Amino acid sequence: MIVYPSVLILAAWLLYYSVESPYFAVRDIPVSGTKLLDAGQVQAAVGVMGRNALLVRTGAVEQAVLRLTPAREARAVVSLAGRVAVDVTERTPLVQWQAREGSFLVDQEGVIFSQQPPPSPVTVVKATGDPTVEVGGRVDPAVLASVTALQGALPARAGIQPPWLDYSQDTGLSVPASDCPRVIFGDASELDSKLAALAAIRQYLESTKSRAELIDLRFKDRPVYVLAPPAPAKSGQAR
After folding, report:
1. Which of 149, 162, 158 is nearest to 199 (CA)?
2. Do 76 and 85 meet the contact criterion of CB atoms below 8 Å apart?
3. I need a labelling partner for 19 at 20 to 30 A (CA). Which of 44, 111, 126, 174 fits?
């Protein structure tokens, strides 16, 4: 086969034009699907503005986006007319985890992915005495499963609508209640038995007109309650 020099020259010119022509330079990176991330963050992470679209690989773009912790999935489409469209699926916050380092969004897998306010209200967990919490870290998914179970069961089965849940590594999960400062559940294991014990204790307290300072349900066969101290006598009241 004879290859004419003119053909080689034309091929070389076309290759040079494809690589160097400003027509193929990336000029637009539209971003969709984001709420926590903004377009500028995604565009900066992708880092292809001004590059030749012929040299941009969608896989590399998608991996760059996924390095942003709020991103769970990413899809990129490259157009030779200088456009790289990026569609992002963000992580869905399950809880707002409040620790000494600040307030963090955590998804169902336990990934700590943002310090921004949630797009819509989620369960608040106030954590104390835990290791350092930071974006990119993790919360134990078993704790989150217990949070979900308690949030689902307490309003309907115990009449408790806690504004938040407390958590510590020592005592696990606890909730504030109207008839005592705290009810300690530990986790959601044996939840039926714990709720039955809670109902029995609350019924007894009501019948004796007593108020508990603490109800501890962590141990299935040994639920514990601590009575609140009596209110101090008012000044001038007969003793």
Report:
1. 158
2. yes
3. 44
Domain boundaries, the chain: 24-90, 95-227
What is the distance between the alpha carbons of residues 233 and 239, in angstroms, rounded to a whole number? Answer: 8
H or E element in which residue 38 lies:
none
3-state helix, strand, coil in the chain (%, to 5): 30, 30, 40
What whole-number distance in Å separates Cα of residue 5 and Cα of residue 134?
62
Tokens at 92, concatenated: 């869905």
Residue 17 has pLDDT above 60, yes or no: no
* C-alpha span between 160 and 140 (Å, rounded): 25
Instruction: Give the homologous superfamily in CATH for domain 24-90.
Output: membrane protein fhac (3.10.20.310)
Fold of 95-227: Rossmann fold (3.40.50)
Residue 133 has pLDDT above 70, yes or no: yes
Distance from C-alpha of 108 to C-alpha of 221, rounded to nearest angstrom:
31
Q: Is the distance from CB of 133 to CB of 104 less than 8 angstroms?
A: yes
- SS3 for 138-174 is ECCHHHHHHHHHHHHHHHHHHCCCCCCEEEECCCEEE
> Would you state the pLDDT for residue 14?
44
